[in-house]
Write a structure and sequence with these properties.
This is Transport permease protein. The chain contains 13 helices and four strands. With 359 residues, the chain is mostly helical. The two termini are 34 Å apart.
């Protein structure tokens, strides 16, 4: 008579429940999964928009004339007062985009810039040059110049730093849970012989892994919801398509967790104890936290390193998450990012299947 395979549902639910309970009792998991991202959001969420703001220094006794009047009417220009010496010091330190002087008559202003802040210097030169060109046309009584720029304003959503930073914190929390928590959790179960006791029952290895993964799935979904909720309530973080955008974020978090779990299994397989696992986990996670678009844009890196960085698993996740939250895209519009996550998942699970040991 054929022997029936034991039902795996009960051990699966038990493993998932106690694994979830262990994670919530683990201070490191709670701190790096919930508290740490929220601390960063609380700090960096205070930053305003990424709109251009050019600071131009003009001595208080020279704040007159048509050039000054025109500059003071431009929203992107911040006029800074002070003595010439004070403004020169700020300019050389890169704290000012330029210093405008008109000590030889308001008709011949001079703009001083510094390479201490090349981007701001270029912006100041462009703005002041544009103002002077318009004034020259007015003085020359030229009403219709041969080349005229027509400017039309279209509606758009203000992009603030929280719109960039919050998706990165979701990626940070997810990678920490998927890799560090998984690796340390399984190593603990092996060291305490819990896995050995479980295998004394009819429970299968895949049931254990699915139970562990399910517990982390619950944690990841909770992390995403908490981070988004705090962003909405505290910093007016906006969901482009409302509940649909939130649903897309949750689905992407599930995909990201599945992709990253293989790395945690790999570390748990090759590490003998927590002391061995810690540096390996840091070697996998820390470079991605620093360069994969978590805290600052990948575009800010040198151009020669960007193609390599964009191939990191966390880069694919962060890019996809920002496409959902900032650009209002849906998952079917980000094939490249999903393929990238899938490729990394296949690589990680293949390697972990060859290295993972239950004892």
């Amino acid at each position: 008579m054929k022997k029936r395979s034991p039902n795996q549902l009960k051990p699966f639910l038990a493993i998932a429940y106690y694994s979830l309970k262990a994670q919530l009792r683990n201070r490191a998991t709670v701190f790096f999964g919930f508290v740490f991202p929220l601390m960063f959001i609380a700090i960096f969420g205070l930053f305003g928009s990424n709109s251009l703001n050019v600071s131009i220094g003009i001595p208080a006794d020279q704040q007159n004339g048509p050039v000054y009047q025109a500059l003071s009417g431009i929203k992107a220009v911040n006029i800074v007062s002070g003595s010439e010496d004070e403004l020169d010091d700020k300019l050389t330190q890169g704290r000012l985009a330029g210093v405008l002087l008109s000590d030889k008559g308001v008709a011949n202003p001079r703009l001083f810039i510094s390479q201490a802040n090349a981007q701001q210097a270029a912006a100041a030169s462009s703005i002041v040059s544009g103002v002077v060109d318009k004034l020259n046309l007015r003085v020359a009584n030229i009403q219709n110049p041969p080349i005229k720029l027509d400017i039309e304003e279209v509606s758009g959503r203000t992009f603030r730093f929280i719109d960039f930073f919050l998706p990165g914190m979701i990626g940070f929390a997810l990678l920490s849970t998927a890799i560090t928590s998984t690796a340390f959790g399984l190593i603990f179960l092996k060291k305490t012989l819990v896995l050995k006791r479980i295998f004394a029952t009819p429970t299968k290895g895949l049931t254990i892994l699915f139970g562990q993964g399910t517990a982390r799935l619950v944690v990841v979904l909770a992390q995403t919801l908490v981070i988004v909720l705090v962003g909405i309530l505290a910093y007016k973080f906006s969901l482009v398509h409302g509940a649909l955008t939130l649903a897309e974020m949750l689905v992407l978090s599930v995909i990201g967790l599945i992709s990253f779990l293989g790395f945690g299994l790999f570390i748990a397989g090759i590490a003998a104890d927590e002391n061995t696992a810690a540096p390996i986990a840091n070697l996998v996670t820390l470079p991605q936290f620093l360069v994969a678009g978590t805290f600052f844009p990948i575009d800010a890196l040198p151009s020669w390193v960007q193609p390599v960085v964009k191939l990191l698993p966390l880069s694919f996740f962060n890019t996809a998450m920002r496409k959902i939250t900032v650009e209002g895209h849906f998952l079917d519009q980000m094939v490249w990012e999903l393929v990238g996550l899938a490729v990394w998942a296949v690589i990680a699970y293949i390697v972990s299947s060859r290295t993972f040991r239950w004892e």
